[in-house]
Protein 1
Amino acid sequence: MRRRDFVRSAGLATLALPFAGLASPRPARRPNILFIMADDHASQAVGCYGSRLNRTPAIDRIAREGVRFDSCFCTNGICAPSRAVILTGKHSHLNGVRDNSVAFDGSQATFPKLLRAAGYETALLGKWHLQSDPTGFDRWAILPGQGEYYNPDLIEMGRKSRRPGYVTDILTDFAADFLRSGRDASKPFLLMLHHKAPHRNWQPAERHLALFDDAVFPEPPTLRDDYATRSRAAAEQEMTIRDHMTLESDLKLGPPPERMDEAQKAAWERAYGPKREAFRKAGLAGDSLLRWKYRRYLQDYLGCVAAVDESVGRLLDVLDETGLAEDTLVVYTSDQGFFLGEHGWFDKRFMYEESLRMPLVMRFPGRIRPGSVNSDIVSNLDFAPTFLDAAGRPKPAAMQGRSFWPLLLGRRVAGWPESFYYHYYEFPAVHMAKRHFGVRTKRYKLIRFYHDVDAWELYDLEKDPLETNNVYGDPAYERVRRGLEAELRRLQAFYRDSEEQARRLVRADAGK
């Protein structure tokens, strides 16, 4: 199939003439929604969030012309569960996807299904990672599993084919074609573009392989964290840059990926061959090896982010060119945060800030005040109700999230939640992050680790933003601790979860 065949796959739509699908110059009653989600894009690698590592001018443009959310959190910091929460507006224990091993039940209500029933044209591109086929979309083209960076396979409405090129660029081409000429002009649209990047093992596009070769990256203060006041969970994970990041694959001391063609392999060797030789000659060990690993990690991770930012810029330009910008709600986010050396780690999963926090910027000209900054607590649980609200549709009673559409429009909402509930389940598994749940408020965070560990952690984020001082046993915080424990029980009851239920799931998982 050619790329343009995506826009009329399975006979579901007739390909429009070039630019025949341009929106009316008058504001639409219901906005189009362009939802762009990266995979593992840390807020600390986004310019508008104060990044000291890189620049993201296109993503920053969305914030400059719209709103930046500073307290957007993920309910379960791992790929598939976050995606299921976004689709359903329900916590993991209710939508059925508690970890990456479970197939998503596509028969349940999702916001794309509800928008489609309300007259929206719906399309999905990129990483799906939910094992079952997508439902609720007029057309879809997804990456199998995690997908590949170079010459990836795509499954388009059930048909699999290999695409030459770099995955971020390929997905952006599909999205641009849809926006330019592949839509039904009589309908508003939902286009969900899910990038693979910057997921591990961080393979930048050819043009970005050497982009950060001369960069100097400030080290996070906790790169050499000793976890002195923390529970066993912090020390017993398997996600440190020092001990668990691989030289061959993660840090590119091995051969080029087999999937590459000869020209791509040649570019890879030009970029990484000198690094490989320099490493072998240097004989690094101990702290000097850690510093080298940290720098190499960021060079590739940020190289992947660069292509994502270019993608965002291309699509914003297409919206301008086609006259769609004024009628389109643009969303940029990530499925969760990511550790970029904080606590010595890479990956996500833990309820600590770098993993918990999701970047979220949104733009809707004429409705969202440019340059807005919102500090209210929102989460991926709230995305589905918000998009339905934007389209003038009520959320189903089963959805547990709350629409923050009024916040986007600059309104204050009485009784807006001041606490947030988190629950992570995938243990024992890759990276060995312990199972835990917890509550976060504006100032405090309480975490309960369970399964093969019995521990609590409490952080005063105002005094200890790096989360290095667990004050759970400090008598000075006894009143705070009791209040947070009560709030945790309240949230668990509200979301129909509990520690007893969590332990039942442990036993059930062990019996599989």
Protein 2
Amino acid sequence: METSVEQLLLIDHDPNTTAEHVHRAFPRPRYRVEVACTGADGLQRAAADPPDVILLDMRLPDQSGLAVYQHLRKIDARIPVIFVTGAKSSDLAIEALKQGAYDYLFKPLDSSQLRHVVCEAMEVGRRMREPALIPQAMLQPHVEGGIVGSCNAMREVYKAIGRVAGQNVPVLITGESGTGKELVASALYQHGTRAKAPFLALNCAAIPEQLLESELFGHERGAFTGADRRRIGKFEQCDGGTLFLDEVGDMPLALQAKMLRLLQEQTFERIGGNETVRTDVRLIAATHRDLKAWSEQGKFRSDLYYRVGVFTIHLPPLRERSDDLPMLVDYFICRYNRELNRDVREVAQDVMDRLRAYSWPGNVRELQSVIRQALLRSTGAVLLPIFLPDLSAKPSSHAAVSGATAAGERFLENLIDQRLEAGSTDLDAEVHLEVNRILLAAVLRFTSGSQHQAAKILGLARQTLRMRLRDLGISVTKTVDEKAEEPN
């Protein structure tokens, strides 16, 4: 089975300890770690074979890390660069973030923090590089995410993207959860004038209110309890690039006033600071809420609504895209055939009838999960009704994960046999990856899809659980009540 290999480049003058941490956190065969001991060697490697993420030491024998970073930006500004420093002073690292670096870590490296930051950076880099628009004649299963569809409503979406992508104006993307708003944001970025500049994304509903302002605008050291160093926010870090704010309708009212000033003047102050910071960021926002109605109810500032929604693109729900359903099914089957080592070539007519009859409250994201579960259960070349999870009128989270658990056990046994026969030299890492897949699915079934409860049972931070779910490709469908209680 052909799998995607993520490549990291470590540029460190004394790489022994650091390289050991990185190799342990990102083992083969899924990851490949290249090591360069000088800035010149690192630049040569980055130009010859651009990696997914770069870990860059601040102090190198031939030049400063900041100088190397400036050259890396010229090679490809879309490659996320994470600085690694042994110095307790973070002044240089902060300066690097102001110039667009992704993040910085202190030595000695903490393995869990390293993995968390690097995996987030990989996702950011993936969004910047992968095509978001996939023509019908070029459906490529190796592309992790893309807008697929040719119905009239989707054609209007494509036209809207084409009209506004090259314009430096804010764009508001509306639509139900799971319709692919983040993919439209990626398409706007890729086809815009800032396609070579950074692209960062932030989910306003997934970050506690007290931390969201710091994430966006940064803070000074001592600004509040726990602020032990200066933090550069997304607006400053993304200067010259594009910032995607998902679920902007969930932004607190107090923070909306600061957002309005930034959009009007392109200036702001960090929390606890009096320095005026100037930035040049193109804003793309998305929401599943009716912001006009919310502004009328006083839940969203009307002046900010008109600033954010200079141009609006609405994504239709899947139930209104019945003509696109066969194309989407084929696309996901091709994609998961490769990932799960299946060879499904045909969809039985009664399977397609059942898919057409379903209302898809979770939209394309739910369809993606259903097809993946069906392929996990499948045997042979034809997708039969018996392989489908339960598609009741009110789909439960149990249906979203139980199929992955049962079929995952059989898949694990087959994997061990296959890897032993193939002469694997990294069986421990490969098996642990699949054990995690089964473990997480089982715990999520027990908690009825609640990631908050699952993280407590597993003894993991919520963000770590989400990172593992993303890495393993596990999608969780939750009930309406759970969605209201637990932001995504």
Protein 3
Amino acid sequence: MIDRYTRRDMGAIWTEESKLKHWLAVEIAAAEALAKYGYIPKSVVTKIKRADFDVKRVQEIEETVKHDVIAFLTNISENMGEDSRFVHYGLTSSDVLDTALALQMKEAGILLKKGLKELIQALAEKAKEHQYTLMVGRSHGVHAEPTTFGLKMALFYAEFGRNAERFDRALDQIAYGKISGAVGTFANVDPKVEEYTCELLGLKPEPISTQIIQRDRHAEFITTLALIGSSLEKLATEFRHLQKTETQEVQEEFSQGQKGSSAMPHKRNPITCEKVAGLSRVLRGNAVAALENITLWHERDITHSSVERVIIPDSTILVDYMLYQMIKVVKNLVVNKENMEKNLKLSRGMVFSQGLLLNLISKGLTREKAYEVVQKAAAQVWADDHADLKSIALKDKEIRRLLNQKEIEAVFDYAYHTKNVDKIFTRLGLTKKRQAVKTKITS
């Protein structure tokens, strides 16, 4: 088990017993369809509905026959008498395997949608809570311009909204079944048998198949999970950067009794975010394997089968785990506004350099000349630990020739950078009663 993960619903979908239950559900639905259209006696449906299997017995038979579906069919047929000859009538193994797999993936998808919804809600709440919490924006890891922590969270809210939309599409693409026979030609059963079977199971009939449902559908599902994983890693990495000792703007919750290091008692490490970041690599590896599965020989080989037995359960379980770990991180995130303020001031006003540049341009300087003037002033700040850009601007003769003190003071106003936060939130549907940016931060 990864960590002390207690959400067992997802894992339960992929147990051996669950797999065989889904196989039996397909066989029962197919029997109903076959009986409806006169291929087998209706009495068989009643008997197969009463049929059961034993996982150990199936495994015992498989040791001899070396075929999992035949072992399963042999086991459920053992107590059906002569009517057992009508079980699996006109079907091929992949009719059962692929249709049942679609059911399992659909069930897994429902759980993942719940996790995505909960994470999106947690991000929305965090965004609204910190809509006006000022902090420095960074590009290349270097101070850029002021932003808010709410905007940072709103960005992830939007991204996971797109992930949810992508996942809905992927889930729709995987919800297909097939009862089309050995090479997909419906040689032994009419297409209406497939249509009715799928209707009973809540799936759509695959418009065209070979012996299998084509694996581009499965690849779309797994690559979408990898995309979700990459977004989770992105969120985790952002928190990891902001938790560094030199930054300390946010921190994963550190619970009572938790310990960070066997050697250094002071440590409070972003271990959950690090786990999520690491596991995303597994998901991307699984996505590559899913893409490799698309190319098979002619109407089918089984090179995809062994791969899917690993990557599909593992990917759904991993994403489920990662989602709920990050939900906890977001909900319990410690946000250090004081350090955000302190760090915002570290660059001593240089975050306002573009505003100063634009004001000089508006007064008639060419962009090249204005850039040169502001860059020269900024260089003095870089060179002198006691200097700040506003003070230098107020003393600079070339700047003062064009801008008076009031105009320079206005450049160094944080509200200038947050005046459109409300509009961005409105675009995202994260509406909140408009309020002025009230900050104790002074430039």
Protein 4
Amino acid sequence: MENGHWFWPTMGLIAAYAGIILALVIRGARRTRSLSDYAVGTSGFSPTVVGLSLAASITSAATFIINPGFIAVYGLSALLAFAVVLPLGLGISLVILTKSFRRYGASVKALTLSQWIGQRYQSKGFALFFAVLSLLLITFIVLICVGMTKVLAQALGVEEWIVLSGLVVFVFGYMMFGGANSMVYTNTIQALIMLVVAFLMLGSGYEHFSAGVHGFWEKLAAIDPQLTTITNPSSPLSRDFFEIFICNFVVGIAVVCQPHIITRSLMLRNDSDVNRYLLVGLSTEAVFFAVVITGFYARLMFPDLQVDGHVLRLDGIVSAYVVREFPVWMGLVVVLGLLSAGLSTLEGLVQSVSTTLTSDLIRPLFGRFIGSDEQYVTINRLVIVALAVISFFLSRYQLLHPNLSVGIFAQNGVYAYFSAAFIPVLFGIYMKSTPPVAVIGASVIAILVHFGAYYGGITEYLQGPVRNPAVAATYAILASACAGLLLHFSLKKTAAS
């Protein structure tokens, strides 16, 4: 399909989509008068709406655009890691943690995860520590910007830096004003679009099953036998049982401890809404995670991972597949879904990171110079501008010089963040009298172990040009848990004596 056939239809689609988003943002901005309004909204929302918002926020450009590339290159082993094991851990963790987290967060009127942790342990310094750590989530923002840029640049046939510039200006621009009051509704629309597109993408390879599932696997095995094996020694992320099943399950359990995920329950009206919120969110999410199967279809279309004589980079495989596989009218719907997948999470990240930096970093450090809530709203907008500039330059670098994939860059930052957050959240919910020193020590150890193991090349999993952040995160979470338990019981024993 010539890209020229896509340019004007894609431009029309983007214009219409942007108009709808701006209408919702204007509606939400009229109700946003304080930082609290921006963070959690002016009132509780329907559990169905918040559940769809949760699913859209968890699923990002990673699931729809980047991760299928890993499946195309590394096969079944990557599919098990990204679409089975990690989602299983995530679902279990959400069910276990959400009710208790929401109950305490609502009682103390927490707006952010940093605030929740600081108030739970009565430590302003600990809240400040997590506000600084939230900067690590910029790596995930970069992943989404890169993923959406790849899709739009492929559809429009224009240079990536031009698309990236427009994308950053538009998204960060409207997020300066809308916040939670508009984001929940934009996320809901995005989730519904993503559901349609998920089924389109999953059904796009139906012809490959003409000889049944066995025939499908035989086609893949003919390209590369390792595409159909449970482990893949040639992959830097899914070489053996430990990497695929242990690391991704541990990561899945802890991944919930990101501010744009776990704090979503604070938007509900009351505790009785939690069950329906989880049912809607998790069932929708299961469909979204299945989309990575599209990576197999792309590999069958591009068996040598080349198109028109050019080698496909991992992050561009899905974009190339969409343009080649779908007619323009249907391809536009798919492009819309891929954009929705990216925007839904990007909005949540911009909202949560900017709120955290404003309320938990700037307020405690410079609050004596700031008077009204309106001033904090203005400061929050300036923070978003700074995030936009940083994200643009990091995204530009990842487009030009990825280390296999922008996914590795994002995982390294995000996994470090939730490795540090997991034990404070877990102990804060289930161990009511934990000494603050215990969880502070656990978080510091998590950060030191994660980055120490990753950059220090600890074990063969973290050596070579491409290293697996899930392994470093697993080491960090386990070390953090051991340290937290040891400090908890030893300090309690000392206090008792």
